[in-house]
Write a structure and sequence with these properties.
The structure is a homohexamer of 315-residue chains. Chain A is α+β, with helices and mostly antiparallel strands and 315 residues long. Chain A is built from eleven helices and five strands. Chain A has two domains: 5-101, OB fold (Dihydrolipoamide Acetyltransferase, E2P); 109-284, Hypothetical protein af1432 (Orthogonal Bundle), CATH 1.10.3210. Chains A, B, C, D, E, F: It comes from Halobacillus andaensis.
C-alpha cells in the first residue's frame, strides 16, 4: 500500500491521489494567478500551490474533489508544502473514492452502537432511560458519523461516537471505584452531552458551523432539545432538570461556555471525564508522530504545550 | 402619615407597624435564646433583636407576619438595629395589610401593560410579533408583578415590567437616532429578555431561587421557551434563532452568563440598554437617600462604588 | 460617478485617482526594489505594490500625494491588493483635489456647531456654561475638523464633532426619561470629554500621536486644561472638580485609562453614552458593507466580534 | 453507642466526651475572661465557650486533651456552638482514648500497604521501581498515617495513603483503556506526588505547617528528595528527570504551585487523577451529610460551590 | 520612661496617657450605650470600650483629645482591647502634649530639607531645576510634615519627606552604578512624585481624603500642577512633558493608577525606587515587632504576606 | 576598524565576515531551494537568504561557521535582510576567529571574579559563606562564561557574572541605606540565584535549553543543589532553608515561576534588585541604539514598551 502524505520527507516526490479540502485563488508576486489548495488523505494534510493556474483549473479543483497529483514535498515557513508538477481529477478507472481519504474513528459503527445500547439497557431510572433511548434512536445515523469537534480532538468521521464510547468506559470504571455515583445520570449525560453538535455543525465529513451553531451553540441547543423531548414523551420529573443541568455545565466554567458550573456530582464527573478523554485523544495522537526523546508539536487546545516522549519509551 | 423606618435617627423611638421579612432564633452570650428579625416597610429594612424570646414568640413572629413594634433605634456594627421593647401581632382592628409594606414599582400596571401592548402593535415582522404577543399573554399576570431581580436593581413588586417599560422608552429614542436599528427585534428582545425570571424565581413578592433557577438559570430557560413557543405557533423563520440569540447574549460576556456574546446589532443594544436602565435604577435610588455633598453607600453591583452627590445639586 | 476602490471585485481593472496614505520601500524576493503603497479614496483603502520601482518613483509617490493608477485588483493573504500597471502623479488638468479623497462625517459643520451652541445656551449653571463655552470657542476650528480617534470609530474628518453631537442627542433623550439627571454636567462632559485629542493627535486629516499624546494622553491633558481654564476665568466652584472627574473617569476603568471609575451619576452616564455611540458607529459601518445573511469582518475594538446581518433585513 | 457531636440539633443537651482541638483565651463584653474551645469527635467539630474561666481552667483545657462536657447546643452566627454547663478532664476510669476521637481513613493500613506494594512489584522499569520502593520503605510509617492535606480533602489520619490507593485504582483502569500509558511512570508518580507533605506538615494527627513547609513547600521538597535518593541509589537515567517533572507539575499550573505545566503524558494524567480523587472525596463526604432534595454546604476548595443531591437519589 | 501601649501584654494594667484617634457611639447587647475609642501613642494603637457611657462622656472624649486612662489590656477577636476602668481628660498639670503621641519620621526636618536642597542645587538642567525648586519652596511646610500615605507605608508625620530623602539616597547610588541615568530627571521625579498628596489629603497629622483626592487623585492633580507651574515660570521645554509623564506613570501600570506605563528610563527607575523604599519601610517596621524565628503579621499592601525573621538574626 | 552589521543602512553593501547563528533550508515561491541564515557579529544579527542554494552550500553554511559575505542590506517585513551576492567559508589566511563575533560582557573575568570573592570573604555567617564559596569554586568556569539568559537581558558571554556583579553593587549600596539588611543572605542569594542556568542551558556561547531545563527549570534545579551541597558540607542550619527559599522565590510570583513568594526580607530585595538590573540592562542597550527624540524598538520582556530618549539628552 502507498504511504500517506504525512509520511513523506522534504525533497521526496509524491505521486498519488489526494482529496481537496479547501481551495482558494491568489495572485503571486509576479502578478500571475495561482491556486492555493489544502490536500489530504487519512494520514494528514499538506498545503499545495498550483502556479499560473487557469480559469479551467479553478473549475476543476474544488473542495471535495479527488485528484491525482505529482509534486515535490518542500517546506514554507516551517510547514510542509507540495510543489505541484502535475495534477488531474480522478477518473472512474482510478478506482478510488472520497471515503478512503477521510480520517475515521479507529472502531467500527456496530461496536460503537453496541456499547451505547448496552448502557442504556442497564439504566434503572425509566425517565432517564426513555429520554436517552429516544435521542439515540432519533439521531442514530448522525450520532454514528459526526465528529466530536471541528478541530482539536476526535475531529474525524465517527469521532463523536468514539468519544462517547471512550467516556462510557471510563465512567463504568469510576462507578466501580466510587459506588455512590448515580450511573444512570452519568451514562445519560455522556451520551447526550455533545449531541447538540449535530445541529451546530453542517455535516459529518467536512463540517462547518451552522448559523444556529454560531449564534446559539451546541450547549443551549441540547438543553432545549432535552426539554422538548421530555414534553413529547410526557416525562416531567426532576430527572429532566438534572439532565439539562449536566449538559449546560459540562464545559465546567462560565468562560468556557457553561453558564452554570457543575452543581451535581455526576455533572462534575461528566466534565472531568470529557476533559480526560479529549486530552488523551490529542496527546496520544501527537505522541504517535514523534520518536522517543523528541517533543511533539505544540497542541493548541492544551495551552500550546509540546509534550515530551521519554527516550526510554518504545517508539 | 407616619414616617417610615428608614427615616428614623439613632436614639429615636419607633412605635408602629412593620412586616417580618426573615426570622431566626439565636442564643445570646448570656445563654438565653433570642429572635433575630428583619423587619421592613416600604422605606427600607431594619434588624431587630427580641431578647429572651419564648417558644410562643417563635410561633408568632414568622416571615410574612405584620407586627406592631415599640423600640429604640440603635446601631450595631454600623447597621441600624431596633431594640424591641414590645412587639405584638397585628389585629384586625389595626387596619393594616401586608401589601402596604412591600415596595412596588412607581407606576401602575395599566400604564405598564399599555406600553408593552403599544410596541407589539407597532411591530411589522409578523413572526416576531406573534411570538412576543404570545408570551405577553401567556405570562401576563406574572409579567406585571414579578421583580426584575432578587436584589440590586428593580428588586420590587412589578420591577420586571417597570424595567421593561423603561428600556422600551430608551429603545424608542435610540431608534430615532440610529434609524438602521431593527425596532421589531429590539423591542421583542427587551420584552422577552428577563421573562425566564418567572421560572427562575419562586414568586413575585418574596422571591427565592427555584431548583430550575439554580441549576439552569433564566437565560437558558427562556432560550428554550422561545423555541417551544415557536413550534407551538408553527413559526420557523430565522427570526426565532435571532430572538434566541438575543436572550442568550444579553448579559454580554461568557463570565456574566452569556455563552455567546452579542453578534447581532440589536443584541448588543439590548445588552447596553439593560445595563443603563439597571444602573440608573440603582444609582438614582442610592442618591435619593443622601444629601448634596455626601457619598452614597457602596453599591455592590456597581463594583462597590460609592457615588457622590455634588453639593450644587438640589437635595 | 466612478465607483470607489472598495467596490471593486477581484480581477477587475481599476483606472482612476487615489490618495497615497503611506509609502515604504522594500526589496522583492528577486532582489529588486519595490514600493509598497497604501492608497485610498472615501470608500476605503487598498494595498498596492509598484514592482521594480526607481529612485524617481520614491520621490514622486509619497504620503499625501494624489495619483492616477491603472491596475488589476487581486488578493494577497486575504487582503485586496492592487497590482499596479501604470501610475502617475495627478496634473492640474485632472481637476481632482485631496479633500475629495478623505472620509468626512456625514453631516455639515454648521449643523454640528448649531447643536453644540444650543445645548450650551440651555445650561443653567453659569460656571459649567462659561467653562464649556470657553473651550468651544478656543478650539472651534479643530473641534469641527478633528477625528474622534485614529482608528476604530469616528476616525474621519469631523469625527469628533460628529461623535459629540450624536452623544448629545442620546443625552437629551435620557434626560427626558430620567429627569434627575443634571443636564448641564452631562452636556458639558460630552462636549469636553475628548477635546484632549486635539493635543494628543498631530492634525485632523492624517493624524498621528504627538509626543504629549504618547507620554501623557488625552485624558490627563484635558483634566489639566479644565483646571487652567477655570483659573483663567476665575471660576473656583466644585463644578470644576466634577468636570475634571468626568473627563478623568470617562473610560470607565483603570485598565481602560481612567485612574478613577465614574463616581458621579453623570460621569457614569457619559461613559455609557460614549460606548454606545462608538459601538453603533463601528457596527453600523461594518454592517453597511455586507449583505443580509452575511457576517461582517471582525471588529477589532469590539473584542474581534463579527456581526451577523439577519437575512430578513433589507440589504 | 452515643451519637456524635455533628448529629445534635439546636437545643439538645450534649453530655459526653470530646477532644480539644484548639483553645484560646478571650475577654467577654462584660470584661470577664473566657475560654474559646474547638471540640471534636470523629463526626465533626463544634465551637464552645467556657464563660468566666479561671487560670486553672486555662491550664487544664489545652489542645489534645480529652474532656467530659455537658452543655446545650446553640447557634452563633450560623455556626453551632456548645454552651458549656460543666466540663472536666477525663479520668482513667472513663475508659476513652484520643485515638477514638480522630477521623481516620475508612480502610486499614494493611490493605493500603498491600496495594502500594503490588503496583511497585509490577513495575518493569528497574530505575523507577527502585526509587519508588526506596521511598515507600523509608517513609512507610508516615506514609501510612499522614493526612493528604490540612484541610479540604483526605484531611484525616491515613488520608495520604487512602488518596494514593484510590488514585492507583483509577490509574489501573485508565491503563486498560489507554494502553499507550507508561504504567510504571504513572504509578510511581501517584505514590510519590504528595510524599513531600511528610516534611511540609508537622505530624499526622494534628498537623500544622513546618518552616520548611511554609518557605519551600512539598513540591520542591520532593523534587529535591528524588534527586538525592537517585544519587544515593546511584541511578542516573532520564527516568529521574521525568519523575521530578511529574512531581513538579502535578498541580497543573504555575498559579497553582507548579512552575512547569505537565509536559509528559503521564504527568498530565497524574494531575487529572489527583483532581478527580480529591473532588470525589470532598463531594461525596459533603453529600453524605444532606438529604435528597437538598444542597450541601459550600465547598471552599471547589470554588465555593454547593452541590445538589437529586430528590430521586436514595438518601 | 513609661512603656508604650504596644508593649503591654494581655492581662497587664495600663495607667497612662493616650491620644484619641477616633471615637464612635454604640449600643451594647444589653441595650446600654457605650463609646468605642481608638487610642494611640507613638508605639501603636489600641481599641477601647467605655461601657455605659454618658452624654457627657461623648462630649469629652473626641478625636484629637488626650486622656489619662486606667484599664486592663484584653483581647477581642484577636485584637488587643483596653477595658477602661477609669478615663479622664488631661489637665495642664499633667504636662503632656498631643505632639508627643503622634508617630514621626525618625529624622529631623532640617536634615530632610538639607538633602532636598542639595540635590536641587546639583541639577544641571535649568528648566528641571527651576520647576523643582519652585515646588519645594511653595509647599515647603507641608512637604516637611505630610505623611506619604494614609496607611501602609510612611504613614506618619513627615513621612513624605522621609520617603523622598530615602529614595534620593537610593537614586544617587544607582546613578553611580548606571552612569547613563539622567540624574536631574530622576531627582526631580522623586521630589515631585507624591506632592499631589498635599491636596489629596486633608492635613498632615490626622489625614483623610479630600473631595479632590477622592474624585481626581494625587497623580492627575500633580500632572496638572506641573503644567501650570511651568506656565507661571514661562518654561516650555520638553522637560515639562517628561516630568509630567514621570508623575503620571510612577505607579507603573494602568490598574495601579497610572494611565501610561513608564516610557522613559528615569520614569521606570522612579517606579522601582518608589516600590523598594515603600516595601522596606513596611517590612522593616513589621520585622521590628517580632522576634527571630517568628513571622510578622500579614502586610496588606504586600499581597497579605507574613514575613519570616530567621532565627539566626539578632533580635 | 570595519563597522558592524547593525550599523548598516538599507541600500548599503556589506562586504565582511559574519558568524552563522542558525541555518535552515526552504523552498522559494519559484520552487527553488534556498538557505535562510541568521548571521551575526558583536553589534547584532541580520537575516539573510542565499537563493538557489546547492546541497554543497547546505553542507558548508552551518551554525557556528564563520563566512565572508558580500550583499546588499534590504528590508523584509520591517526587518533588515541581507541579500547575499557572494558567500564563502573563512580561510585560515583571513585571520578571524569565532570568539570575535560573539557579544561579551563589557568587563573582564578577573574583575568579575574579584568582586564575587570579595563579598564572600566579608560574610560573617560561616554556613552561608561555606555554601556560597563551594558553589563559586565548583562552577567557577561556567559562572564566568555563561549568559544570564537566552534572550532579553545579559544574553551574552559572561552575562551571568556581569549580572551578579552589577546586582552585588546595588546590594552593597542598599545595605548602607537600610542597615537592618542581612548582607550575608542577600549577597549569597545574588551569587546563587541564577546558577541553575548552568544546567538549564546547554553551553555558554550558543545556549539552548537542556531537557532538564525544559522539564524542571533553573529554579528547582538550584533549590535541589543547595540542599545536596549542604549535605555534602555537613551543614544543617536554618540558613540552608532560607537560601533555598530565596532561590525559590526570586521570580516574585507563582505565575512568574516562583511557587512561593518572597517571605524573607532579603528574598524580596533579591527579587527587586534582579528586576532593576535586568531592566536597566535592557533599557540602556535599547536606548544606545536610538538618537535623542526617538523611541526605541519595543522591548518584549518589558511588556512590549518602546522607551523614549528625551531630545534634551546627549546622544
Amino acid at each position: 500500500m502507498k504511504k500517506g502524505i504525512s509520511n513523506y520527507q522534504i525533497g521526496e516526490t509524491f505521486d498519488h491521489f489526494l482529496l481537496i479540502k479547501t481551495a482558494s485563488k491568489g495572485v503571486a508576486s509576479n502578478g500571475k494567478p495561482f491556486l492555493s489548495l489544502l490536500l489530504k488523505d487519512t494520514t494528514g494534510e499538506i498545503d499545495a500551490k498550483l502556479w499560473e493556474s487557469t480559469p479551467e483549473d479553478e473549475g476543476l479543483f474544488t473542495p471535495g474533489e479527488l485528484v491525482k497529483v505529482v509534486g515535490e514535498v518542500g517546506q514554507f515557513r516551517n510547514r510542509a508544502q507540495l510543489k505541484i508538477q502535475s495534477i488531474r481529477p480522478v477518473q472512474p478507472t482510478d478506482g478510488v473514492q472520497a471515503a478512503d481519504f477521510v480520517e475515521k474513528a479507529p472502531v467500527n459503527k456496530e461496536d460503537l452502537m453496541e456499547k451505547v445500547t448496552e448502557v442504556i439497557f442497564e439504566m434503572k431510572n425509566p425517565n432517564i432511560q426513555r429520554v436517552t433511548r429516544h435521542f439515540v434512536k432519533h439521531y442514530q445515523e448522525d450520532l454514528l458519523t459526526y465528529p466530536a469537534a471541528v478541530r482539536n480532538h476526535h475531529e474525524y468521521v465517527s469521532g463523536l461516537a468514539h468519544h462517547i464510547v471512550s467516556m462510557l468506559n471510563i465512567a463504568q470504571q469510576l462507578k466501580d471505584l466510587y459506588p455512590d455515583i448515580n450511573a444512570d445520570l452519568l451514562y445519560a449525560g455522556i451520551i447526550l452531552h455533545d449531541l447538540g453538535k449535530i445541529k451546530e455543525l453542517s455535516n459529518a465529513s467536512s463540517p462547518s458551523y451552522t448559523l444556529e451553531g454560531k449564534l446559539i451553540g451546541h450547549i443551549p441547543i441540547m438543553v432545549e432539545e432535552i426539554r422538548s423531548t421530555a414534553k413529547e414523551l410526557q416525562i416531567d420529573g426532576e430527572e429532566i432538570t438534572i439532565l439539562q443541568h449536566m449538559i449546560l455545565s459540562h464545559h465546567g466554567k462560565a468562560e468556557w461556555g457553561s453558564p452554570k458550573p457543575p452543581l451535581v456530582r455526576e455533572a462534575e464527573l461528566l466534565h472531568q471525564i470529557d476533559r480526560i478523554d479529549a486530552q488523551m485523544n490529542m496527546v496520544n495522537r501527537a505522541l504517535k508522530k514523534v520518536s522517543p526523546g523528541e517533543f511533539t508539536e505544540r497542541i493548541y487546545a492544551l495551552d500550546q504545550r509540546a509534550f515530551y516522549k521519554p527516550s526510554f519509551e518504545e517508539s
